[in-house]
Amino acid sequence: MAPTDVAAHDGPAHPVNPRITNDFSIQVATVNGSGSQTANLVLLRSLFQMGVPVSGKNMFPSNIAGLPTWYTIRANKDGYVGRKKEIDFLVAMNIETAKEDVLALEAGAAVLYDEPLKLSTVRDDLVFYAVPFDKIVAQVCHDAKLRRLVKNMIYDGVLSKLLNIDLGEMEHALRRQMGKKTKAIELNLAALEAGFAFAEQNLIKRDPYWVERMNKTTGMILVEGNAAAAMGCMMAGVTVISWYPITPSSSLPESLISYMKKYRVDKETGKATFAIVQAEDEIAAIGMVVGAGWAGARAMTSTSGPGISLMGEFAGLAYYAEVPGVIFDIQRVGPSTGLPTRTAQGDILQVATLSHGDTKQMMLIPASVEECYEMAMAAFDLAERFQTLVFVMSDLDLGMNTWMSNTFTYPERPLDRGKLLDDTTIERIGEWGRYRDVDGDGIPYRTIPGTGGPAYFTRGSGHNERGQYSERPDDYVNNMERLARKFESAREYVPKPILAGDLDSDIAIVGYGSSHWAIEESRDQLLREAGASTAYMRLRAYPFTEELEAFIDHHQRIYVVEQNRDAQMLSLMRLALSAERGAKLRKVLHYNGLPIDARSITDEILAQEGITPQKRAATAALVGEK
Amino acid sequence: MAVTTPEPAKKTNRIGLEPTLYRGGKTTLCAGCGHNAISERIIDAFYEMGINPKNVIKLSGIGCSSKSPAYFLGTSHGFNSVHGRMPSVGTGAVLANGTLIAIGVSGDGDTGAIGIGQFVHLMRRNVPMIYIIEDNGCYGLTKGQFSPTADVGSKLKTGVVNDLTPIDTCALAIELGASFVARSFSGDKKQLLAILKASLSHRGTALIDVLSPCVTFNDHEGSTKSYAYAKDHDEPVGEVSFVPFFEDISIE
Predict the structure, then answer these.
(1) Is the pLDDT of residue A535 over 50?
(2) Residue A421 has pLDDT above 80, yes or no
(3) What is the DSSP letter of A82?
(4) Alpha-carbon distance A292 to A290, whole Å?
(5) CB–CB of B90 and A284 under 8 A?
(6) 3 state SS for B33-73
(7) Which of A299, A455, A460 is closest, CB to CB, to B92?
(8) The pLDDT of residue A554 is above 60
(9) What is the pLDDT of residues A125-152, one digit of tens each?
């Protein structure tokens, strides 16, 4: 699984300057269920505490215990937090994958390994550090049953010494991670210190990687996208949540359960002001959302691709019957069994037209944990404003991995409950009809059951403006055109795309979601290695806004970067755009289950631009001279 | 000297509402359909119990039975949802607003086939709603195919004989711990009205399976869900009546 491609440079394999500071990736290869997550998060957090920009990505199997798992931490002084393809420092703890992992490394990389694995004979162009984990752990942990769990802290101690990561920061991170578990803290601290002491006494530093304190994480937090989204849902005033367990979505409702229990229980009565149901399946989950949204609640569910498929029928009804609701789609690779624990942006086309009949579903697409939080709030407002489902298209990489972020801001705007019929509206519009377009924006006024307003009967495709049963062709056409008009009106309300870069360049990139981080880094690579400056538009919603058309008109070759095989967003753009504009779009795809990386994007764009590695080297040299 | 007599007081129920507020749209079901009789009893029960229709939500799935909420309580919000999935919609609605009085109407196909999963979990959760199965043993709206409540040996109009054992929704509900289970017949006005009134006083899921003959596709010789069969096999084991709890009238 480890990366295999080689960075395109003609320079020496070993860097001239042997000291590489705050710019490397560490990959920890362990066995699933061996308790390595604590050690990995302590490592990540201690780097973060030292002010070094970091990101942590867990590559885990669909399994509870026994299969190989890899955790990659990237430290980068320039703030690149996308996945880096090349591994600089491997911690090899898993006998199953150790040899393959070592063979995949680039020359000059470092390997810290469990001594019995005897890896140093595999290659002679790497730096090896052998550590007798079992011997060390036996000295600090007398209870043999617990050794397996604290063993991993030893590599943290060794790395602390080898990479110059402050041991005090590690201890601080460990205490934070463990909370009040005194005995566990003691044991892990002992293992940490034993690892450090071993390295101090036995290992001679031969790799080029160093950590130095910086100040680039001041005021920031580390958080997973699913937790951030859950916070946003709570802030948005969600009161009905129904869900069915599915990776990689489950941690969103599970986080939400803990937040709601803590912050949304009436202090005086001790009663919950919300309802959370673990449904019998995703069909029931969305059914409850539709029922609750219809009855006036802010309601949501969270799922992933297979759940979205099951929700298709209800999604169509909600579109036709105009019922608000929020659905998080934490996208992953297609059907289980196989790669349900790997990331993808594979549900774009499915969600955009989810259901039978003519349907158009609104999508918000967060790229950061901060946007997971913000778009959760925006989604509820949009759902009620447009009386429709809003899908928040996150993914496994964003949802389950740990990201740096600015702190989240408390919402300032009041909730937008949309067009609810009240006395002043009745006075203004005269006769009310549930599906009448009074304001010309396609959005009708609704009433909520039990609040005293006039009643109506909700059903699927056959109804007239007044909500009465109708199979008349003209009623159907009028309604469908109004629904299209409503969708069109949403273009003014959804989050606008973000523009960046050289807006006069020929080359432009369109991206969305978690691909953003790799695209940003790739744009720097393109400039540095090939002198290619780029414009960049990051889409944040469907329907598309007018900015997209202007952007395409302004550039010659537009690379649409996405994490699926079939260029789903590009296809959706072509459906919405003129043929001339559509013809300018080119595919840059990444779909192996791992988060997209900058190198893959750069290589693909340069190949399509016809820029050979030789040309790139010449340009890079030129840029270097300047 | 002309004597003016005051207009006779309009008939109202105990909360002062007139019967028309409890009526619905004109039925589009077949003349003689058992479902229409059930709609009439629902109207009577809600009127007589003095339930404000503004606080009621009517829910259904898909099928002939599921059309019927449009034919009663016209001043209540209604939701004709998805085939077999009405329980989840009802669950969401009552979670959104716990003061709503929910009545769901389903059919034997809507409940026993496509909706058996949601039916099971509705019973298990004891969601506060009345859940009526208008049970005619066949799919009316798609022209008379057998449903899972059709009895072994019963015959379609086309002569096809059912060779599968039926699902007994009441027995299933009891097994699942349902808190109110009843079975009645659309042709038994008195009994059905009493059961409906009782269900309105129940906090939790009230399952009422009502044998409701399909006059078009399942009312012939050989059917076990016909009017004739129901009447022949109706063996009253006791009088069903319901005395609601209303506040005492006290005179000083």
Answers:
(1) yes
(2) yes
(3) S
(4) 5
(5) no
(6) CHHHHHHHHHHHHHHHCCCCHHHEEEEECCCHHHHHHHHEC
(7) A299
(8) yes
(9) 999 999 999 999 999 999 988 898 899 9
Cis upstream peptide for A3 (omega within 30°): no
Gap between the Cα atoms of A372 and A395, Å rounded: 10
Chain B residue numbers with beta carbons less than 8 Å from the beta carbon of A450 are 54-55, 57, 77, 97, 99-100
Cβ–Cβ contact B99 with A under 8 A = yes
| pLDDT above 90 coverage of chain A, percent | 88
Lay out the sheet containing A507-512: strands in order across. A498-501, A535-539, A507-512, A557-562, A585-589
pLDDT tens per residue, range B210-229: 999 999 999 999 999 999 99
CA–CA gap between residue B173 and residue B130 (Å, rounded) = 13
- d(CA B240, nearest CA chain A) in Å: 32
Distance, in Å, from the CA atom of A189 to the CA atom of A497, rounded to the nearest integer, reads 47
Using the 8-state DSSP alphabet, how is residue A64 labeled?
S
Angle at B35 between CA B31 and CA B41, to 5 degrees: 110
Amino acid letter, residue A585: L
| Residues paired with B134 in a beta bridge | B107, B210
Check CB contact under 8 Å for A449 and B70: no
- Please tell me the predicted confidence (pLDDT) of residue B1: 56
CB contact under 8 A, B95 and A240: yes
**C-beta of residue B144 within 8 angstroms of C-beta of residue B156:** yes
For A460, the token pair is 């699927």
User: Closest approach of chain A CAs to the CA of B114, in angstroms?
Assistant: 12
Q: Is B93 on the interface with A (CB under 8 A)?
A: yes
- B158 and chain A: CB distance < 8 Å anywhere? no
- A152 neighbors A19 (Cβ within 8 angstroms): no
CB contact under 8 A, B80 and A240: no
